[in-house]
Task: inverse folding
């Protein structure tokens, strides 16, 4: 049986365009952006300039984590920290507790995840992911 509400190619492309357009408004801030399906498989990836490998990988890891854990990465990381646990205890090396990954759900149905990496300190990663989330859920 197929997923009743998958992310379509058109939705994913529109979300990527919205996020890259927003990111390019501050060209000195280079970012990587990823969108995955509900199982964590990569649907789209873009970057607005040259980035370190760490930032590129973490955009994908943030999207993956949001999808497979079915929660935003910052929320999940904070929850684990409060419990005195670490993301490494989950046994999946692709998971991250860094802020910047948002889960994509509609009417309680898990659709995927969005991850953004590259902003200094990660302070704007989640804000940019929110731009894509709004498009995917519109």
Result:
């Amino acid at each position: 049986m197929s997923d009743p509400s998958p992310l379509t190619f058109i939705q994913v492309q529109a979300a990527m365009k919205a996020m890259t357009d927003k990111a390019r408004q501050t060209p000195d801030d280079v970012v990587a952006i990823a969108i995955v399906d509900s199982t964590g498989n990569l649907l789209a990836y873009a970057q607005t300039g040259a980035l370190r490998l760490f930032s590129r990988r973490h955009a994908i890891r943030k999207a993956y984590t949001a999808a497979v854990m079915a929660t935003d990465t910052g929320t999940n990381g904070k929850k684990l920290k409060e419990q005195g646990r670490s993301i490494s205890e989950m046994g999946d090396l692709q998971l991250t507790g860094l802020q910047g990954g948002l889960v994509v759900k509609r009417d309680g149905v898990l659709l995927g995840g969005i991850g953004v990496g590259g902003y200094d300190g990660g302070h704007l990663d989640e804000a940019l992911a929110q731009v894509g989330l709004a498009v995917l859920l519109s």
